[in-house]
Amino acid sequence: xSTIEQTTYEDGMKELEEIIAALEGGGLGVTETVAKxxxxxxxxxxxxxxxxSCEGQLKEIEQNKNLPEITIxxxxxxxxxxxxxxxxxxxx
Length: 92
What we know:
Blueprint: H1 9-25, H2 30-62, H3 78-91
Helix pairs in contact: 1-2
């Protein structure tokens, strides 16, 4: 059974950048290179999956899905009446 590791998107990106720099810098042994490649690939997949999930959420927002319900309560004060008049003028 494998353990599921958790990280933030920002921390994952930072670690991936560090891995890339280490690999580009050279001087690593074969075993360490393979380990860094494996870790980097795992981070890349997790980061991409997270971005895909965020993209799906943004599409839902654009389609007005899963939005919180908000009710506007109109008051009898002059400011509310002015706003209502402005909205009516805009809609006309």
